[in-house]
Amino acid sequence: MAQSGKPITSPVPEAWYPTLAFFMLTIGLLLSAAFFIYEATSSKKNKSITKELITGAVTSIFLGFGSLFLLLATGVYV
């Protein structure tokens, strides 16, 4: 006999999608702006590759998940 499986559900309630999208995109854009300001105002001697990589990675994560939740909030299920 075939057993009926449980439907796949999101670990995050659907009502939170717009809020998560807004906050994650806002944080990502602010970090992106801080990264560009850091790049424009610091000299070659004062730049740190570690700080650049960490800032870029965190910014990428926030913008990526923010975009995902924005798509989910608008009904585009990816």
UniProtKB/TrEMBL annotation:
Topology of the protein relative to the lipid bilayer: Multi-pass membrane protein
Q: Name one GO biological process term.
A: protein N-linked glycosylation
What GO CC terms are in its UniProt record? oligosaccharyltransferase complex
Q: Where in the cell is it found?
A: Membrane
Coiled-coil residue windows:
none
Residues annotated as transmembrane: 20-41, 53-77
**Sorted UniProt keywords:** Membrane, Transmembrane, Transmembrane helix
Q: Which InterPro entries match?
A: TMEM258/Ost5
* Pfam families xref list: Ost5
**What is the role of this chain?**
Subunit of the oligosaccharyl transferase (OST) complex that catalyzes the initial transfer of a defined glycan (Glc(3)Man(9)GlcNAc(2) in eukaryotes) from the lipid carrier dolichol-pyrophosphate to an asparagine residue within an Asn-X-Ser/Thr consensus motif in nascent polypeptide chains, the first step in protein N-glycosylation. N-glycosylation occurs cotranslationally and the complex associates with the Sec61 complex at the channel-forming translocon complex that mediates protein translocation across the endoplasmic reticulum (ER). All subunits are required for a maximal enzyme activity.
Quaternary structure note: Component of the oligosaccharyltransferase (OST) complex.
Which family is annotated?
Belongs to the OST5 family.
- What protein name is recorded for this chain? Dolichyl-diphosphooligosaccharide-protein glycosyltransferase subunit OST5
Query: What organism does the UniProt record list as the source?
Result: Papaver somniferum
